[in-house]
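Reposting from the mailing list since nobody answered there.

I have sequence plus structure tokens for a pair of proteins and want to know whether others read the tokens the same way I do. The first protein:
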Amino acid sequence: MSSPPPFPSDDEKEVPKEEVEEEGDALFAMPSADEPATAAAEDPPAKAMQSIDLSGDSDPPPASSEPPAAAAVEDDDDGDLFADAPSISTTAAEPEVASPSSTATKSDDGEEAPQAAEPDAPPAASSETASPAAAAQADTTAAELEEDTGEYYIEITVSEPEKVGDGMGAYVTYQVTTKTNLPGFKSSSVTVRRRFSDFLALQQRLQEVHLKVGRIIPPAPEKSVVGMAKTKFSKEEKAQGGASQDFIERRRAALERYLTRTAQHPVLRKDDIFVEFLQSKDELPKAADTSALSGAGVMRLFKGVGDAFVKMTSRATETDRWFEDKVAQFSALEETLKKLHGSVESLVTHRRDLCTTTAAFAKSSAILGNTEEHTSLSRVLSQLADVEEKIEQLHLQQVENDFFIFGELIKDYIGLMSPLKACFSQREKSYQAWQAAQTNLLKKREQEGKFQAAGNTEKVRVCQEEIAQMETKVEKGEEEFNTISKMMRSEIERFEVQRQKDFKASLLRYLEKLMQNQEQLIKHWEGFLPEAKAIA
């Protein structure tokens, strides 16, 4: 019997966000990397419209410049340095997926129907069968992308957070505005209000439909039990505005990035579930388990333990080298991103400390200037204090650039590792189901042979009927495994293309902001130098 593919180890197993409740923890999605380098001049906290251009050569529509209304909700969530990220106006052409030639036949829904193998022996998931599958799925993805060329676009903004109710029943709603000319939308501009649980339900419903075929579903922002508890019971909202504004703004930005990343997917943006979320005025279906300690969440925990045990007892060698390399690559990438994220956190802490010491130095210089009797020296010390105050503001701006521009991207891709692992796990389950059906078929054929030798025609007839059913099950299992393998190849290729674009765009913008701050720093010191030399 052939061997199933390796998948992420138990310690890498995806933990549902409903069970991981960390204060202020939010995921981030960067816009497409096709935005020009001049976008680096934008301020990080800006809430500009995020734009997705579905054509490769057309200009995106103008983005709305109206900033969302400030949230009047009290909360405190200082534990997440990277959650409050700016919205960035972007233009993202869909990536072309390179596809080898293939003669696979496509079904009515645009996906190739894989050919069933003879069920005489359990076939291995070898690279010889995987390569044609990858080519066929690449062709399907290319066809999907071709459908979106032209003048299609979609822009999604999340704005105007609003608290509804008080006490335990309180919640926050957000205004979701969509501007698009995609088919399937009733209007070119639609505005609805959604609460946070609606976003969780959207991700859950998309996973139920698309995960089983190997599509990577972007993760929704994680919940914050502490942050929302304080929001529910806060009374003097305006008195504590700073902390609460930070939490609500971080969540708003995270939700906007989540919808933007989902809309970047050529299939998900046309899904009826996603379209309904963006334009339906009716109440949407709720997630089954939005509570951190819900019964469904506990059941998923036990199911995860069971899946881990199955994985431990059924692991074997992967014969498809492509998938083996990808498992190792993403495992190493996740570890590297986590280390880089920790370094960015340390850098942010260092810059904040630098801001504090710079402010203290400016204050001390001002005091010394006021007590100095020498007129010219007193004036220079006062000017030095002014320069240090300006430099403090530059350090604060760089802190924002560190985690708004660069930190959010790293945290976002750390979060995207979980959907990738889920796809690999789904492929493993499909493989195991196929092999189990093959094993049962072989046993039933052996049983049929024994009955034939014994001359028991009635039992032979029953066995033949069961064998026919089992052969159908084997063919279906092979078809499902080939389908998910093909889909995963195209999804991973699209993911890697987008990842390279995102990192390039973010890095360029980060470097340009850093250079701008350094130029301002030099300008301040050059303006102060003549004053220092003029001391009599």
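The second protein, same order (residues first, tokens after):
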Amino acid sequence: MIRHAISFTHGHRSRILLNINRAFVHLQLSSQSEDEDRWQHLHRSSCHLYQHISTRSLSNAENTNDKNIKPSILSKEAATAPIDYPTSQRLWALPPAIAIHLSIGSVYVYSMWTPSMAKALGVITVAPQDWTHPTLIPIFSTAAITLGLTTSTLGAWVEKVGPRKAGMIGSALWSGALLTTAAGVELHSLPMLYLGYGLLGGIGWGFMYLTPVTSVMKWFPDRRGLATGIALSAFGAGAALAPSIIHSLIDYFATAPEFVGECVLTGGTAGECVELCTLADGSQVVADTSPLGEPGTPVVVATEADIAKSSVGNMSGAGVYAVGTGDTGVAKAMGTLGVLYGGLGALGSRHMMIPHAEWKPTQSSGAMNTDSESKDSQGKGSDYNNNNIGLPASYVTTNTLQFPLLWLSVFGNATGGLALLSSSKIMLTDIFAGVAPEIVTPAFSTGYVSSLGVGMALGRFGWSAISDVIGRKNAYAVFGLGIPIVGMTPYLCHTVVDMTTSGNLASGEVSVMPYLMTFYTGSVLAITFYGGIFSILPAYIADLFGQKHAGAIHGKALTAWAASAVAGPMGLAGLRSYSQQNAMEDLLHTIEVHDASALERSFGCSIHDKATIEKLVDAKTLTIEKLMELTPPG
């Protein structure tokens, strides 16, 4: 019987032995005259037997469960390939990495969103309640700061949990960021924009940037530069494809606002056109005496220049439009991309793979290898390609000279590139659209932003491959050429503005094309350097400090990028505001000299009433485009 009971399952054993124990106790209580020591001994024996069999049953159950339970599909164990994984098959690690980076490449074309977000209410031109560019540009910088903090503090965690879980979390955050930002635009809530694109977007961006880079480097320790270049070139490809996609979606979802009629400023006849009333805060509404429009309706005045810059279709031309009656299409376009990019990133994350800790590429390392090693790896011995060797991130950041020098190099080179990327479309339309409207159309501007993405993709792939030949240090030295190129941009822009105000361009004495092409090609070349910086950086870190902790060290180094994302865009935004203020003062002076009453006829404000003029400017009622309408030709 006892042998039969022991063969039962753990649950049956427990119940039988518990009954045996109870029987002994009952016998003890009912036989007080018997030897009590004997019953105490039997009771203790039954307890020991119960404990022994229960422990063995539990142990056997745990061993059985360990064998049957499979690791989660997103776990690091599930993402780890067998130790004998064929070297020739390692190229399959690239498509998932490419998919992830394609989904976040659009972060670099933030300037595609800002012009329309700055006209969320006015649609055709800015309304008094619309956001300004100085309030929108810091959103990109906030995302960069969040990315830097994420990669710096959670880089080691990404290595610990594996690429699938980190990538999936990043995809969810990036998708949620775009959806939250879209809701913020729809509700016209600036805090939601900072929460979405700035906070959630930065965290998701950090996870989705680090995960593919560290994984791919482990598969290609013998060709780190080229491998990371291929993966990161997808980042640039995403930035190249995104402008056309964004432009098409915005055009598809955009609707024109309600046209009220012409006004005096746009060529209407007094007494027969819309009459406007300027309120104390500088905004404008339809006047009570206006023959057209509903009195008290908040409106904006769109000039021919505003119409030329807008991509909204079915416009009625220059004139007065009701505020809040149209749609720029930004919210719906961003929400659509949030779903698409989230799905693409999740798909790539699901199929990410990392090699076994003891895996090494064989001598015939597949298509990515050549007979010679990279210049940086020559003479470093067989341990150079070992994924388990490397200095800890805490030691590298505090006890080496190379890390701070590398940090400063990334910061200096990235500042100019990020200034261009964050405001590229704004710069092109602000400077050249007014002097060459037949060339610098909305489609041309979109093509320019796409060309920057192409330049970044080519730079990430090309410079990373070149660095395997000439060395990482020499490649970084070449990137220093980007400093004079970016430094030339303000001078070039000021030259064009000076020629515009002097009338040389209008008279045909000077062509704007050489300046436009110089700006265009110089920007693309500088962006190739910018792309090369970040595609080489992971391989450079692995060369200097070893592969084992390269992901965590890379995360620390990306804080330099975060700092440059604040210095570059914010510095450019400050220069833009300063230039706009000077241009407004010059135009007001020109109006005062040629026709001082023009401002009062159009805005009901004397040219000498500085306080009212300041209110009109703050309310965005008085803009450079509208002042240009009041200045004499040339």
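Reply #1 (J.P.):
I read it the same way you do. The first helix runs from residue 2 to 6.
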